[in-house]
Specification:
Length: about 70
């Protein structure tokens, strides 16, 4: 199941990542600018997607994330 955690700043993105992990997320898709910081904070896989969020890059990020999530 997909869930959205909107963020309007880098701080919001970090807080949203921690909240997502606490709520049981198996992985995260986030903007490249925060991905390295988020990866250091959470213990779940992180994939990046360009900020433009056109459909193909977002779907590609989700697909790459599925390979990172242990079964």
């Amino acid at each position: 199941r997909d869930r959205e955690y909107p963020a309007h700043s880098i701080e919001d993105a970090i807080i949203a990542a921690v909240r997502a992990q606490a709520e049981g997320a198996k992985g995260l898709v986030c903007a490249p600018i925060v991905s390295t910081t988020v990866e250091k904070i959470v213990d779940i896989p992180v994939a990046t997607c360009p900020v433009g969020l056109c459909r193909k890059p977002f779907l590609k990020a989700i697909e790459s994330l599925t390979y990172k999530i242990p079964e």
